[in-house]
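Hi support team,

I'm filing this because I wasn't sure whether my run with adenosine monophosphate finished correctly. The job status page said complete, but I'd like someone to confirm that the output block is well-formed before I use it downstream. Pasting the exact inputs I used:
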Amino acid sequence: MFDKFHEECAVVAIHGHPDAANLAYLSLYAMQHRGQESAGLAVAGGKEVICHKAMGHVADIFTPESLGRLHGDHAIGHTRYSTAGDSAQLNAQPFLVKCNKGRIAIAHNGNITNAAELRDDLERGGAIFQATSDTEVVLHLMAHSRERTVAGALREALLQLEGAYSIVLLAEDRIIVARDPHGFRPLAMGQMELSGGRSAYVFASETCAFDLIGAVYLNDVEPGEMVIAGPEGVTRERFSPRRNSAHCVFEHVYFARPDSLVFGQPVQPAREKMGRFLARRHPVEADVVVPVPDSGVTAAIGYADESGLPFRQALIRNHYVGRTFIEPSQAIRDFGVKLKLNAVRHVLEGKRVVLVDDSIVRGTTSRKIVRMVRHAGAREVHLRISCPPTMSPCFYGVDTPTKSELIAANHTLDEIRRFVEADSLAYLSLHDLREAVDDNERHDYCYACYTGDYPTDLVHIDEMLSSRKRP
Ligand code: AMP
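And here is everything the job wrote out:
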């Protein structure tokens, strides 16, 4: 089936650095949290474009030998989020093709909401698709373009797309990056000084990649902007008028690393504020604040600071869990969560616990964690969630399930509390979330997963809602 919905990813592009492949590799390493299913790099050195990609983690895919073969001054890279169904290697990015515009490799983060319609049209016109990811649609649109240059063809293709995309493209002698006119997904631009007064330019989903490779953050690629870095230098142009900004607020809530800037804003203070607001609005008599690692840690620090309660790591995460082939026996209940997390009885025993996590989606994981905390001796468990109730699916690149599976879409607060077996439950309000990301005046963010108010016209929304699937 056409994979319309699962494109939580990271992208990177490096221009004009003799060590481009290694820098792109390290950038992917820094952004591994954005996608663990597959990763790939494509490198160009003037004539050839070479690509290496595979299923798995960045550290396992690239060896000194495979990196050693990726010669060139320009590189792009991608990591893809883990999904069940359509997780075939065919969908690993970048996609590399040889077409009438030369050799082109492309990768993107986000969800092109009209990809299915575009694909149908292209197939009716004779196009043959190899994968189910919507990134391939962009390549076909480019190949069909009558524009002579790669940038011209990409511009023409982008104007036909709807939805969310941060795209990195590599041609034989240049890279081009672009961001959709609403700016749903992040894309930062940075610079590295080279000897002789020259500069290399780098682009990445999150600035934690820049920190690792020693690049300086300059600014964001603007919504509706295309940046072309080639032999003639770097040019920035608007391919589309900017529309209402709709930066994904879930980047700040959950997805991005706290040490990153996304949409030009540091994540850590925004997340801490979410925790502070939660403590202010939903205080509770308790002994200790405990985060669900890693996603709840920063908000829990904010909660603890504001409430004056001690912060303790009482759920310990095993960071080395990959895929396991051991079938848990019936006797080992909640195996998946136990593999990842274990409770510290010594901290929890007899305590009234404020448990902080970033979100409840279906409620099943949250229930297992609440049970685990109680099983380790907690006397009370008060669950605090650092975003509003998740009510509506995302069509712009975050992996949320259908409305029928979203617990908050179908249940009252008290029903959810009973389901997750917490003594009390409170969410952050939309107003406070907006305040935490400094958006109450600006209106730059998308909150559709909390409000159902989608910032773009979605074609065939009913069909999209019913065909929505989740691993
Ligand atoms: P559940 O209670 O089963 O809905 O699971 C909630 C947990 O899933 C929370 O700990 C979140 O951090 C995590 N979570 C929420 N959204 C996502 C997402 N899009 N991808 C991966 N994990 C997520």
